[in-house]
Amino acid sequence: MDIRYLKGVGEKRAAQLAKLELFTAEDLLQYYPRDYVDYSQPCTVADAPYDEKCAVRAVVYGKTNGVRVRGGKTVFKVTAGDDTGSLALTYFNAPYAVEKLVPGDEYIFYGKVGGTLSMREMTNPTALPVHSAETEPFAAVYPQTEGINSAYLSKCIRNALDKGVTLPEYLPEAMRREFRLAGKMDAVRMIHFPRSADEVREARRRLIFEELLALQLGMLVLRVRDAAETGARIRKPDLTAFFKHLPFTPTNAQMRSIGEIVNDLQQPVPMNRLLQGDVGSGKTLVAAAAMLAAVQSGYQAVLMAPTEILASQHAKTLAGLLEPLGVTVALLTGSVKGAAKKRVVAAIASGEAQVVVGTHAVLSEGVEFANLGLAVTDEQHRFGVRQRTVLANKAHKPHLLVMSATPIPRTLGLLMFGDLDVSVLDELPPGRTPVRTYAVTGKKRRDMYGFLRSELAAGRQAYIVCPAIDDGENDLLAVNSYYTDVAVPLLEGYRVGLMHGRLKPREKAAVMDAFARHELDALVSTTVIEVGVDVPNASVIVIENAERYGLSALHQLRGRVGRGGGTAHCVLVSDHATESVRKRLSFLCHTTDGFEIAKYDLETRGPGDFFGSRQHGLPTLRIASLANDTRILKAAQEKALEATRSDPTLEQPEHAELRELAKSLFARGVAMN
């Protein structure tokens, strides 16, 4: 049912809901809460924990009319309390919220508590009459967008349920009985309007199991589908000249991974392998060996990178490794235009370009390969499965190598990547020394800049990373104002550049090239420099608002320095020094093993920090967590294997529901037909 025709929506609201990717009433039912406001066990005023969000039960004593204050805001004051103390409530620009409060009535207020022991305070709390809290003690909290709040979403979802909108029941009854799972619509009702914490748990368990079963089924079916005979039969390569040409000896891990890949390339089915390695572990060298193997058998190879900067860097590295051996390397990005683009596209079509490096531009119409045998994607979590499939469709069942510098604990990786074999680079090449890492507060910023100036005076370079672009993004340091007001004055006399995601690709490349040529001493940037950028002369990276990142993301950023030998430094700046933040940043200061860091991130913050919102190119999961729900994931994987063991593509009638289940999830990421 089109969401426009749902009660309370209409054209304008539908456009706002579309920003949340909600287009139908069915989408709404599957838009699951990210949290709940718990009204079931409210505190007394005296027991309300200071500086924490909580529910407080109190009687409204009185309220004032709104008073206009500086800045155009209208302030409303409400007094409330109980036998244990007084509660002062302040509302800004919220006349409707205050109008609903009736003096003498009892409410449960939810918000952050401040003030003193004798007079507690709350600002803009939500308020629920006590009788309402008793019938609906949990209020769902949803991801929101401008003009759409959780209360409105709840109202729309209730309207959809009242209108009889339903979702299909994909799980067979026997499977529901085996795992004691609620029915689909019962789970949907409980997840949105739970009457107890037990109902939340029951609903989540059902919905998470279904989603992870769909994921595992889809991956197993895709693996069978992709296991058809490859059109690129690659013979055993001769890599003697390749290794002889290298100015260093590869690590044991690189040699082991090259061996695994070369073995895969000689098989009659397409390789589907994840090459996973920590920052600076030498994945590009391994990919170069694989690409050379393809070229020696008469095939082309392509490497796709997420950004033009990284694509250009890969092209330069691969040219250095392969062109001395007679291999032609071509670069195709969005910045390649006109006659230059025509020449590259023609070289790809004729086979003259044996190795092609590019961004998503290599997926565009009009780019045809003469004989593509190997496709490599770098930082694959930045590509969707659909893009990966489009790339693979440029040839008949080519081999696929996926590279990622995002460390994933091995057991979880094997569960996640059911459609991929895994190679791990767990050694750093010789000459790479661990980066010294320090955590400081903003009060030390001037001292830190003194250290930066000493490094720049010694001829080194520095990155300074800020997480924001706009001044309007809460209290984060905006990169533009930080550049103007902080970096340039404190690094007076040095050449300071600015880079952020809103620059055009050509502008980004120009800034990065200037930094690489040491025409800039320091670079103030957002995280666009996170992946793969290689400037050996950079010895320091400063990361502002470090508490905003997962440890794995910080570890990735830290890998931008220390690439040219010598001592390198990473400074983590944070003014939000809660105990958990201090503990996390201290862990990073004392740990350089990316896999240990990923494990710690998993245990303390969950998977979003290093999987990214697209779950490494897998279909977007609405409710399940690949890290926190590993027990359910394992159970779902076992049921998926059981179903596909006798029916690999789920074509048999008894598996029709399971096939539809998998298609329902993978329709958001990759076609399963």
Question: In words, what does this structure look like?
Answer:
This protein is of the alpha/beta class. The protein folds into 4 domains: 3-29 and 158-207, no CATH class; 41-136, Nucleic acid-binding proteins (OB fold (Dihydrolipoamide Acetyltransferase, E2P), Beta Barrel), CATH 2.40.50; 240-425, 3-Layer(aba) Sandwich (Rossmann fold); 436-591, Rossmann fold. It has 24 helices and 22 strands. The strands form 4 sheets. Strands 12-13-11-14-15-10-16 form a 7-stranded parallel sheet, sandwiched between helices. Strands 17-22-21-18-20-19 form a 6-stranded parallel sheet, with helices on both faces. Strands 2-4-5-7-6 form a 5-stranded mixed β-barrel. A hairpin with a 5-residue loop joins β3 and β4 (74-82). The radius of gyration is 28 Å and the shape is globular.
Uncertain spans: 469-477, 606-617, 669-673
Average pLDDT, to the nearest integer? 84
**Count of DSSP E strands?**
22
In quaternary terms, these chains amount to single chain
Indicate the topology.
Layout: H1 10-18, H2 25-29, E1 35-38, E2 53-63, E3 67-68, E4 74-82, E5 85-92, H3 95-99, E6 106-115, E7 119-123, E8 126-129, H4 130-135, E9 138-141, H5 150-162, H6 173-179, H7 184-192, H8 197-226, H9 240-245, H10 252-265, E10 272-277, H11 283-296, E11 300-304, H12 308-322, E12 329-332, H13 338-350, E13 355-358, E14 372-378, H14 385-392, E15 399-404, H15 410-416, E16 421-425, E17 436-440, H16 445-457, E18 461-465, H17 479-490, E19 496-499, H18 505-516, E20 522-525, E21 538-543, H19 551-558, E22 569-573, H20 579-589, H21 594-605, H22 608-611, H23 630-646, H24 656-666
